[in-house]
Amino acid sequence: MTINPSSQEKQPEKLLIVGCGDIGQRLAHRLDPNRYQVTGLRRNPPANQPWLTYQVCDATQANQLDTIIQQGFAVVVVSMTPAERSDAGYERAYVQTCRNLVASLKRQAQQPRLIIFVSSTAVYAQDDGSWVDENSPTQPESFSGKRLLEAERVVQESGFALSIIRFSGIYGPGRNRLIEQVKQGRASASPHITNRIHAEDCAGVLAHLIDLQNQQEIAGLYVATDSYPAPMLEVVSWIAQRLGIEHFLSPDAVNERGNKRISNQRLLATGYQLQFADFRSGYGPLVDEQK
Prior knowledge:
- By secondary structure, the chain is of the alpha/beta class.
- It contains ten helices and 13 strands.
- The strands form four sheets. Strands 3-2-1-4-5-7-11 form a seven-stranded parallel β-sheet, sandwiched between helices. Strands 6-13 form a two-stranded parallel ribbon. A two-stranded parallel ribbon has the order 8-10.
- Helix 4 links the parallel strand 4 and strand 5.
- 40% of the residues are buried.
């Protein structure tokens, strides 16, 4: 019997999501199951989905990750969530995980075609309202920004094909902090510029770049945010108006950290089209659910 080579070429690629939380689950759901066989790693995984199979793994433990990596993956996405918001928590979740991953991959004969590390615009410390992009200096003052930048460097120095995605403030279903602040009268009147991206666009960006890298070279770094940096006061005022709430500001509210306008031009130049291009289109459905 003759084997058709094309049938072999259509075998789905094995894709691993290390730290498969909300963004990882959304990414897995977006990927074509005919093209990708997706495995998600979590310490305490939920039930499997038709498009996503979980495996139990604490990626901060080298021996546990080694066992998984031996299965061989074409694409690896690192999307961690720290167990605690502290310097030690970020060091374990990001730096240690990346060190373990790189070491495990280097011991394998099969090398991934792409590693994606999900980072954050917390690596930027600019606070003068200026525009920030992939070429802007990174001099983080917070422990979170410092540890993320350290993890980025571990991946960058690995020698593997990679792309680092720095997301701005993520919001979406289950991420209703601003809406709750408005409802409770604890919103900030800060004029500082804020930047955000919907969780669905986070998943969309990752899926887009994974597919694109199969066709052409992609950049080693992208900033991912929507197209409308806006003052915090404008955002919470719009939410309050939509909810019909008059008294929503608090003089004691802590202003948002930072004050910068983040540019998404490199990302948009790849052909990605935002599902939610500004906070109004993204927050609209979330706010309406709260009425």
